[in-house]
Amino acid sequence: MFTNYLKTALRHLAHHKLNTFINISGLAMGVACLLLAVTYWLDERSFDNFHENTDQLYRITTKLVDREGSDPKMTGGSGQVQGPAFREAVPEVQDYVRVLGGDIYGDVRHEREVLNLQMLFVDDNFLEMFTFPALQGNPATALDELNSIVLSESTAMRFFNTTDAVGKLLHLDADPSARRLGHKPMLVTAVVDDPPANSSIQFDVLLPFRFLQLSFDDKNWLNAYLGTFLLLDERADRAATVEKFNRIYAQQAAGQLEEASFDPDISYGLQPITDMHLNMLLGGSGWHEGGTVGESRPVYSNLFLGIAFFIFLLAGINFVNINIAGSLRRAREVSIRKITGSSRRGLVIQFLGEAALLCGISLILALILAIIALPAFNTLADKQVALADLINWKFGLGLALIFLTATLLSGLYPAIVLSGFQPGDVLYNRSVSPGRSRLGRALVVLQFSLAFILAVGTLVFRGQMEFIHQKDLGYEPAYVIRTHIGGNREYAPIQQLLQNEVARNDNFEAISFGGDFGYESAETTVGDQKVRAVHKSADRHFLPVMGIDLRLGQNFTAENQREVIVNEAFVRAAGLEEPIGASVRLHPDFTDWEEPMQIVGVVADYHYESLHKPVQPLAIYQLPRNRGGIWLKIKKENTQAALQDFEALYQKVIPDASYEYQFLTDLNAREYDREQRWQRIISIAAVLALLICCLGLFGISHLHTVRRTREIGIRKVLGATTAGLVRLLSRDFLVLVVIALVLASPVAYYLVRNWLQEYAYRIDIRWWIFVLAGLASIAVAFLTVSIHCLRAARANPVESLSND
Q1: For the whole prediction, is pTM greater than 0.90?
Q2: Region of 337 on the Ramachandran plot (φ > 0 left; ψ -120 to 50 alpha; else beta)
Q3: First to last CA, the chain
Q4: In the beta sheet, which residues pair with residue 97?
Q5: Are the C-beta atoms of residues 486 and 654 closer than 8 Å to each other?
Q6: Where does the record place the MacB-like periplasmic core domain (predicted)?
Q7: What are residue 208's DSSP bridge partners?
Q8: CB neighbours (10 Å) of residue 575?
Q9: Exposed/middle/buried for 782, CB within 10 Å: 0-12, 13-18, 19+?
Q10: 3-state class of 396 per DSSP?
Q11: What does the alpha-carbon distance between residue 487 and residue 176 come to, in Å, rounded to a whole number?
């Protein structure tokens, strides 16, 4: 019996090659997309769960609100004092580790080889609290000595071509703490596995926190710039523990608050280590939070999974719709089987078996497609995931559910309907149709609604990205390279040498030196007005190098450190009618004095941050000791020669530093890497969705025209034209597509409008976007349907009637 059912199923699939191909290929593509998306989604939620004590590991968070109760900032940072103080006074805290790094890179030398490496300064017990297995050395004692250094496996291989590196010597020539040690060599005490890709804590080398404190020992409770991780007692009450933290802060920081020029409301929190990766809201400090990198948001992985589920749903709709429509052609076959003795139960089993065979083949093909597409997917999504990560009972259960659902939906309905037909009605051509399929029509509408939403999203994404690339940023980033003076050095002599050499080289236009830490926000005072402004240290060459328009006043004069240049947003925020000559007091953390400074110039508002944010008030000041950053304007006619010349000059002036540079245009583009990636993902998804819709429509229209073969023949005999028949046969499908567009338009508008809200500067959602996406959908649907309609309309009516 089973063999007979299998032979019948295979014979049926082979006889209807077109429908078989559409069903298998469509469902396989849908399942493959879903597999890749689930892999991505699970990887995003796997971050930092590999540590042995994951459930007990937390990071201290700091919430800071200014005295007016506005501009709240939540950061994953804390200072140097919180960890030791909480460990001593709060019994629930079993241990702590301070971590400074994430975006800190420094030059490490072995003999003549210098590498610029990602550094973490950590407490001695770092390798005991966190699970980074040691390949060489003792993790319990590896960071005990001030001159200890721990290497990752890849760093050891880069330096020594082996992981057997314990006992080797390295040098930190430019580090201020190394100077305090008399440039004593750093001793390699351990080699550990590279941090896994799903670790928020990444590093090339580990250095003792006490080594950092030789040059930077900070007792200020008001600072928040490093990560403090706590190992809590498993029975600890988090809320009660945080209350104790805040009481300790109130006691310890009272004196410092009195001396400070601002009075912030600071409170602490505890964040599970596994929540760090997907909680970008804990940003705002301007740094990667306490040694962590690669923060994301759950919305991205949820969106990816949602898009993949859309595509899978489209494929599933095709599978069910075509199976149901195709099964209605088999009414005579079923009737003959019933006359020859087949039971209703046997017919149901036959239809379910055919659907199960199709599903099984589709799932196998989906796995093959997912494996083939995985390398390209990892590149597109900027991931390092493997399908092997899915091999577990949950994965098997998911595939089983897909298999059973698709089999039952596509096989059970036609099996029950057809097995209930009366053979006499079928064989004597009495109507046996269960009615015009409302389910099938609804599924077609749903398909094209989803495809239309993705098409609109693609057009809006592309439009916003083009807007970003074309928008005038208020300065000229082209042919400006960005680098820095490696290490903590005396900047002045190096700057003077570079300045002189650049002036003598015709391949360079100008060079500027400024703060190496980007743009940081703090409170300023203008008369009685408080203005929160971004502080930027730079020299008098910064404006011409960057091509920033000076609207009022003048540039800096030589090294007068009492001069300030502000932007137009600052003037508006401070309510200054005559800004030139006005006194302004910058935040003391950024300058060497607390006396008022004088505004000498006003520049146009330029976008020093991404277009996600509006231009904020900006104060540019001179501070020679804070000029590790380099901006070099090169001549576009000799780009390659200029790059080579400056690299040679840099290595001549700073021979013990590694040289790396980036074009400012590339740095700006990096701000939108995520959006560019999602534009590509949604574009690919829209193409796949439309392809699957067309495959389904192609199959349905084929079955539709086959069922109306006799009607078409009669109409042709009565004088119907080919064009008229094509209109007649395609009209029903095009009406469904138009209904889908009308229903989907409000949903598409709502989704793209919400996404655009993330940008302070954005495109308008134009009506033509919906018209273009709609016309494209209608055109593709018409071309798909017209293939079968045209073929049926051109067929010989004699053959159509005789076949019937």
Answers
A1: no
A2: alpha
A3: 32
A4: 229
A5: yes
A6: 20-246
A7: 122
A8: 10
A9: middle
A10: helix
A11: 8
**Mind giving me the DSSP string for 729-742?**
HHHHHHHHHHHHHH
Place of tokens 């540019």: 620
Instruction: Return the DSSP state at 761.
Output: S
CB 495 within 8 A of CB 626: no
> Which letter, b or e, does each residue of 305-319 get, where b requires 16 or more Cβ atoms within 10 Å of its Cβ?
bebbbbbbbbbbbbb
The type of residue at 241 is T
- In the block, tokens 């496996």 appear at 153
- Two tokens, residue 47: 């971050």
Asked if residues 289 and 227 have their Cβ atoms less than 8 Å apart, the reply is yes
- Nearest CA among 385, 305, 323, 231 for reference residue 696: 323
Concatenating the DSSP letter of every residue in 587-636 gives -TTTSS--S-EEEEEEE----SS-TTSPPPPEEEE--GGG--EEEEEE-G
**Is the CB of residue 566 less than 8 Å from the CB of residue 602?**
yes
pLDDT tens-place string over residues 96-106: 999 998 778 88
Residue with token string 């199709």: 358
8 A C-beta contact, residue 75 and residue 268: no
DSSP one-letter string for 250-294: HHHTHHHHHHSSS--EEEEEEEEGGGSTT-GGG--SSS-GGGB--
Q: How many helices (H) and strands (E) does the chain have?
A: 25, 22
In angstroms, rounded to a whole number, what is the distance separating the alpha carbons of residues 613 and 761?
8
pLDDT value of position 430: 45
What is the spatial distance between Cα 519 and Cα 535, in angstroms, rounded to a whole number? 6
Helix (H), strand (E) at residue 94: strand 93-110
SS3 759: coil
Q: What is the DSSP string of 467-507?
A: HHHHS--SS--TTEEEEE--SS--HHHHHHHHHHHHHH-TT
Query: For the CA atoms of 288, 293, 299, 302, what is the dihedral angle to 10 degrees?
Result: -170
Is-contact 124 136, C-beta < 8 A?
Answer: no
Q: pLDDT digits over 435-494, tens only?
A: 445 666 787 888 888 888 888 988 998 888 888 888 888 889 889 999 988 766 677 888
Structure tokens, 163: 């992981």
CA–CA separation, 284 and 294 (whole Å) = 15
Q: Report the length, in residues, of the chain.
A: 804
CA atoms within 13 A on the CB side of 303: 19
Query: At 300, phi and psi to the nearest 5?
Result: -70, -50
Q: What is the 3-state secondary structure (H, E, C) of 110-158?
A: ECCEEEEEEEEEECCCHHHHCCCCEEEECCCCCCCCCCEEEEEHHHHHH
Distance between CA atoms of 204 and 192, rounded to whole angstroms? 10
Q: Which conformational region is residue 369 in: left (phi greater than 0), alpha (psi within -120 to 50 degrees), or beta?
A: alpha
What is 625-638 written as a DSSP string? GG--EEEEEE-GGG
